[in-house]
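User: Sequence for Ketoacyl-ACP synthase III below. Tokens please.
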Amino acid sequence: MYSSYIKSIEFFVPYNKVRNDPESKLTKKIGIHSRHIAGEDELASDLACEAARKLFDSNVCKPEDIDFLLFCTQSPDHYLPTTACLIQDRMGLPTSCGALDINLGCSGFVYGLSLAKGLIETGTAKNVLLITADTYSKFIHPKDYSVTELFGDGSAATLITRCERPHSSVGPFEFGTDGSGGKNLIVPAGGMRERQTTDSLMEQQDDKGNIRSRVNLYMNGYKIFKFASKEVTSCVRKFLQQNNETITDYDYFVFHQANEHMMKALREKLEIPKDKFSIQLREYGNTVSSTIPIALYHESRDRKIKRGDKLMLVGFGVGYSWSVCSVIW
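Assistant: Structure tokens for Ketoacyl-ACP synthase III:
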């Protein structure tokens, strides 16, 4: 019987740093003071390779040790080929390595952990490299103020590996999906359902003064908040009940770093102590699938979480999609 655990995390953000107005009501509400934005020719795969390179440079493993690469992104280089295959070649991973893309957003890291756990604990792989990377800035119109100050670009590389412990340090998991909410966080045009045309590139202004075209990201913030408040809290409570646990059984909680207003509401609704709840978005914003691993990196570095701590990880967002898991650090 194989077990799995998170061995190491590294992250990378673009060097271009954009600051939000620290005095604005929005900044104070969302708690995001700066974001890192990818350059015109800087893609999610570039961020991914930088994060992976930092992981290998830390000497926790070598490229040839990787048996499987999972790449979570919603901003791939191409429709095809699979971006994970391109990263495999660029990073010098062995050709015996499996590689696949996961098109998932803010719940993607937890979903990726579950896939890594399955690969390892079935004996398929010994070392799984889970990379999360997104460049949502490329979907955002600069005059759509409903999203411009929220999202930042970034990546994280997480090594999940096999161990001889009697019980896995990763899992169990709980998942949820409600595709009826897909329209509330979407880039409407540019895929096969609605091809990019001259008409889809036409900019329009909504009733709040935000400007976007159909190839830009659209978010209904009110409905996203309402969804998270209902489904995320319900999923966490179900997860605890199924595992005969309570909030007090956990040492620390790392939720998807959407924005501080939403996270505060979730924390208070679930009655999670403030000193056990991660807030790590001030300097990075919402980096989509990378928010949880970036937060884990900082909380571990700052000794907020320590070896042996029991953590709850919660992802939620675009899809709608949500996920909960426990991890022994």
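The domain at 171-328 is CATH 3.40.47.10 (Peroxisomal Thiolase; Chain A, domain 1).
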